[in-house]
């Protein structure tokens, strides 16, 4: 077995453990943490200075972004959400949550690809990307779902990585997250 396979196996083990914890959270707790997330991000300088927000549409026990999406729209931010196609992901503009279709990748709500696509750096560089995390390490590494979508996307638009914010529940903060050179470390982490 090589080092990459060992790393992948360890990430899967940790991911399974953390998802087991997260799936035990109540709907009320998920909503309360979602409100705290919206308040925290909306109160930040990086949010106030951003014109565009690349955000994810939460699903299941994930840290809820519904209130943050609404806040972005209410604050006049240009909101983009991801849409997966094969092994790639792109972000498309959403002007209303009613534009989301519930049958995207893994049943995640996604925008239709007929809307404006976010292009970096041609797009306004005053953007932030809020990324989901299954877990975060104390030194700022993110454990995602294992599909590599965010790492590949940020690999294409490397300048965007300095505007990334990974978000996670405080119960899922770890001393260390296994990582390699392909894992993009977010510029900021918010633990709720």
Instruction: Report strand %.
Output: 15-25%
Q: Biggest sheet, open or closed, and with what strands and sense?
A: 6 strands, mixed
Low-pLDDT segments:
none
Count of the domains:
1
Spatial order of the strands in the main sheet? 3-2-1-6-9-11
**Rg, nearest Å:** 16 Å
- Average pLDDT, rounded to a whole number, is 93
Q: Name the CATH superfamily assignment.
A: NagB/RpiA/CoA transferase-like
Q: What fraction, in percent, of the residue positions are helical?
A: 25-40%
Classify the secondary structure makeup into a structural class: alpha/beta
What key attributes describe this structure?
single chain; 192 residues; Rossmann fold; 11 strands; 30% helix; globular
How would you characterize this protein structure?
This protein has 192 residues and is of the alpha/beta class. It has one domain: NagB/RpiA/CoA transferase-like (Rossmann fold, 3-Layer(aba) Sandwich). Helices cover 30% and strands 23% of the residues. The chain contains five helices and eleven strands, in the order αααβαβββββββαβββ. The protein has helices at residues 3-22, 27-42, 45-49, 66-74, 149-156, and strands spanning 52-54, 78-85, 88-94, 100-101, 110-111, 127-132, 135-137, 142-143, 164-168, 173-174, 188-191. The strands form three sheets. Strands 3-2-1-6-9-11 form a six-stranded mixed beta sheet, sandwiched between helices. It has a three-stranded mixed beta sheet with strand order 8-7-10. A two-stranded antiparallel ribbon has the order 4-5. A hairpin with a 2-residue loop joins strand 2 and strand 3 (88-94). The longest helix has 20 residues, at 3-22. The termini are far apart.
